[in-house]
Known about the structure:
Layout: E1 2-7, H1 17-31, E2 34-38, H2 44-54, E3 59-64, H3 65-70, E4 81-85, H4 88-97, E5 101-104, H5 109-123, E6 132-135, H6 137-146, H7 154-157, E7 161-163, H8 166-177
Amino acid sequence: xxxxxxxxxxxxxxxxxxxxxxxxMGRLLAEAGFAAQTGGYGGVMAAVSQGAAVAGGxxxxxxxxxxxxxxxxxxxxWLTEEIKYQTLRRRLAHLTEKCDGMVVMPxxxxxxxxxALSWNMILVGEIPPRPLIAVGGLWAGMLNAFINPAxxxxxFAALVQSAKTPREAIRLLxxxxx
Length: 178
């Protein structure tokens, strides 16, 4: 089973633009034959899980006792399988190491951490090269502002791809993982 980790904010609610974008991402992943793997809670994670589950896909939720202590939450209802760790560090390790590619949907500080960690782990060889795709204008703008050739060489910048839409992200995944 080819697994794609999807990162994104816990904030978007059903019906919001970001929730629907993430739901589409989950559906497209399942239709392309990928298992969707998320942090397992609400917002983008629930939307991806819902989209993949409704499309008949396998949905993994990588949850964490430390998060549930910090913010009382429960895993979303769409998970096929839950894997729970005690610490955020172990959860992040699973999400970045045990996948065939990563997709970054809209999010905040936690999602930025996941993007930066994934990018750096690929860059230094901590994990083998795999697709890392940032979806939407938020990340395209941030990456354009951040990538300065004095600090981020073109070779390192190329480790993160931008996609405007979930459909474009799936095309990039299919080229890289198929």
